[in-house]
Design goal:
heterodimer; A: alpha+beta; VC0802-like; 7-stranded antiparallel β-sheet; 5 helices; 7 strands; globular; B: alpha/beta; GMP Synthetase, Chain A, domain 3; 9-stranded mixed β-sheet; 4-stranded antiparallel β-sheet; about 25% strand
Amino acid sequence: MISKQLSIFIENRQGRLGEVLGVLKNNNVNILSLSLADTTEFGLLRLIVSNPALTAEKLVKEGFSAMLTDILVVSIEHKSGSLQGALNALSDSGINVEYMYGLSVHGEKATVVLKASDLKKADEILAENGYSTLSAEEIVEF
Amino acid sequence: MIWNENKECMSRDEMTALQSSRLVKIVDYVYHNVEFYRKKMQKLDLMPSDIKGVEDIAKLPFTTKDDLRDNYPFGLFAVPKSQIVRVHASSGTTGKATVVGYTRRDLDVWAECVARCFTMAGVSREDIIQVGYGYGLFTGGLGAHYGAEKIGAMVVPMSTGNSKKLIAMMLDFGVSAIACTPSYLLHIAEILEKENKIGELKLKTAICGAEPWTEKMRLEIENKLHISAHDIYGLSEVMGPGVACDCSFHKGLHVCEDHFYPEIVSSDTLKPVPDGTTGELVFTTLTKEGLPLIRYRTKDLTSLDRSVCECGRTSARISRFKGRVDDMLIIRGVNVFPSQVEAALLEVEELSPHYMIIVDRINNLDTLEIQVELKDAYFSDEIRGLETLTKKVGHVINQNLGLNAKIKIVEPQTLNRSDGKSVHVIDNRKIYQENQGV
């Protein structure tokens, strides 16, 4: 299932990341996972939060460049080689992974956030290979 | 040394008489050969015979860069194309370049003027001179080149872009004079300093121009390199480099007055102001055949001094430039109008129409940063996407301006909105402010 991630463009200047997190705090938004990709000029903050649509709205109101991005949250076995299996399945089908980061680890299970060139196809391929992708509710509960 | 003592040391009365007779001729010439001027004069009910000498010059209409644009490319040429042997071009205020043309005689006059300027700076036939201005449509490279050849110096046509080779040849050849932008020369000086090679130099003089600079920079160049540094001025519309240059006394730039009649007018009223008062510099070309210009507004702010110089030259001198009437920037010797940047950015669909130009000078080299905002619909949360876009914008700017710019995508709504006269430029170099203080 395709889920929503919150992506925020941040200029590389002091305190800017803190300002984003301030908006989240003021709106009682809990961060489930995050990844910060940085270049010399700007950063891209990618967040998995409980209510991405509402959070995006609040951020935009505060003048941030926030948007919702489609991603997959893939559930995998928490053991060596399991992530590789999922990625091999995708690359064998000609799907390119744009970026990826870990979401959480829970007992025998782990989850990763993944953005791919063709998300719909990626979702199908993963299912065919025995990997499940989580819905919004499942992400929060995981 | 004075290249042409006959002209450069004329008495004021003789000069005025020469300028007057040449002005009468050129007015008659443009009236009969350039439709643009004939119409302009007819509108003012002015006949060539109404101009009897330089005292009548204020009766004549002005010419602006926009007039050149409106008559792009060859509309203001006074001779058939067959008589034009060369064209150059500079930045126009919008997409179209400003094109200028020269007859063979114009090129001779140009070389003569540059020869006078270089001689002022101490260059002679004994010298080896590196020309570090760009060769091509820009007047700097070829202009300096022909002037140096006229003197009989050995010319090394370096052009721009390869500091390492320039330094190697400077040392290996025993280069004794260099013509390039002052900021570039300071950059070279710093490299030489770091490599501890200043002592190996044979360099004795530099003729720097194509961008405004300060007395402080001039002294810094002199002290760092143990040479004398001179300021050369020109603009392609009037001719190119060589319109004026400062002598070893550095008290203003001697104008080649027998070819270019200088006036200073108030930037508000456009009425002539007394010598010594700062205003806009206006030139009338007195001898040009290809593209004669009547009262061309340079948009440069300076003042005029017609007293005799300690060097013996009597030619009028202009002071260091105090500013511009318009918003033109000179970045690494290249003229840039914010309107050009705006037009270029409009070509990029992904961008919002807001932008900010930030110019600075870091390690003596001009830097150009252009901040842009993306339209929401084009936002990507992939670094690759944003970097591809940055490169695309950089390419468009380079194609339009002939300059590399650092493109910075900023957060939306952070750039100045047009509330009346919005500020699109931050120039941290503060060159004109410094000159106003001198």
